Amino acid sequence: MLKKNHRVRIAMQKSGRLSDDSKELLTRCGIKINLQQKGLIFFAENMPIDVMYVRDDDIPGLVVEGVVDLGIVGKNVLKEIFLEQKEKFKKSLLKVLCNLDFGTCRLSLSIPLNIEYSGLDYFQNKRIATSYPNLLKNFLDKKKIQFKLCSLNGSVEVAPRLNLADAICDLVSTGATLKENSLYEVETVYVSSACLISGLQEISIFKKNIIDKLITRIQGVIKAKESKYIMLHVPISKLEEVTSLLHGAENPTILKLANDQTKVAMHVVSSETIFWETMEKLKILGASSILVLPIEKMME
Ligand code: PRP
Ligand code: ZN
Predict the structure, then answer these.
(1) Are 186 and 121 part of one and the same domain?
(2) Of all atoms in ligand 1, which is nearest to the CA of residue 55?
(3) If DSSP codes are grouped into helix, strand and coil, which group holds residue 41?
(4) 55 CA → ligand 2 middle, Å
(5) C-beta of 176 in contact with ligand 1 (< 6 A)
(6) Which residues form the domain of 136?
(7) Are residues 116 and 154 in the same domain?
């Protein structure tokens, strides 16, 4: 039995935009863990990894304090904390170990639908509700706009309706929340996506090995999702043209066909999605039996 402090603890958002994707990432990395809505800490069965389920805004603090070793968090939260701490600590107390391919959203300024937007000057001396005061200030200071901060921790989108604010600065992903609240986006303050973070504390070699293994798996999962395995039959005379159409394809495997001397089979891993348009072009070049397959796992 391993001692508790030999287990790597990861903080993840319990419920919200990042929860499902964070959970799926661990599953794809082969970590067997039964995450449930009720409960704070869950233990993986097949690796010395524990998950702590918390509010996303609490994750950077837990990582800095060393309560957890890693966190999956939006860069928006990270940047906000960084701006807040900058004065106090002069540098960030957190580091990004790897970027993740989900949680894409933007921190935007939005105003009520019945107001016509006249440009950034609109915000001069206006009341703006947000949970991201530092990112907002950083953005508007650069544009020389003075504003009145209305700092809220949740339900920012209802502030204009309650006449608490003239505008909001909040995250927009699908835009559904804005629509429901009769608001529209007028300026992008910050573009964000998820990432894996750690603190700056010293960790044991044992933990470091687990973390390195996890990062390699995460990178493999992301790469596999972006890549495709392509198989096709190509006229020998068109090999070069076909290869140039398959962007991101390195070192294709060429195989002889049993009953056709004019064509060869080509197998290739492409780091890019193959669009229908590319398949149609391949067909025009005389390629046939074109198969595009998803890749489940990848290690280089
Ligand atoms: C953000 C934001 C909105 C919502 C926008 O919340 O505060 O409520 O996502 O998404 P939409 O454009 O798809 O409607 P977040 O997931 O950060 O949860 P939290 O505010 O409770 O931390
Ligand atoms: Zn949040």
Answers:
(1) yes
(2) 22
(3) strand
(4) 7
(5) yes
(6) 105-192
(7) yes
Cβ of 125 closer than 6 Å to ligand 1, yes or no, is no
Residue to mutate, 21, 173, 189, ligand 1, most ligand atoms under 8 Å from C-beta: 173
pLDDT at residue 139, as a whole number: 98
Can you tell me the distance from the alpha carbon of 30 to that of 39, in angstroms, rounded to the nearest whole number?
22
Residue 80 Cβ contacting ligand 1 at under 6 Å: no
**Ligand 1 centroid – CA 16 distance (Å):** 7
CB of 133 within 6 A of ligand 1: the answer is no
* Upper half-sphere CA count for residue 150 (Cβ side, 13 Å): 21
* Together in a domain, 150 and 44: no
Phi and psi dihedrals of 90, rounded to 5? 70, -20
Note the pLDDT of residue 1: 44
Q: How far is the CA of 29 from the centre of ligand 1 (A)?
A: 26
The predicted pLDDT at position 156 comes to: 96
- Domain membership of residue 299 (yes or no) is no
The CA distance from 254 to 262, in Å, is 13
Task: Order the strands of the 8-13 sheet from edge to edge.
Answer: 41-43, 49-54, 8-13, 70-74, 194-199, 94-99
Per residue in 55-97, pLDDT tens? 998 999 999 999 999 999 999 999 998 898 877 777 778 999 9
Atom of ligand 1 nearest to the CA of 157: 8
Which regions of the chain are under pLDDT 70? 1-4
Question: What's the CA-to-centroid distance between 295 and ligand 1, angstroms?
Answer: 31
Between the CA of 10 and the centroid of ligand 2 the distance, in Å, is 17
Tens-digit pLDDT profile for residues 20-55: 999 999 999 999 999 988 889 999 999 999 999 999
- What is residue 2's predicted lDDT score, i.e. its pLDDT? 47
Q: At 79, phi and psi to the nearest 5?
A: -65, -40
Task: Assign 127 to helix, strand or coil.
Answer: strand
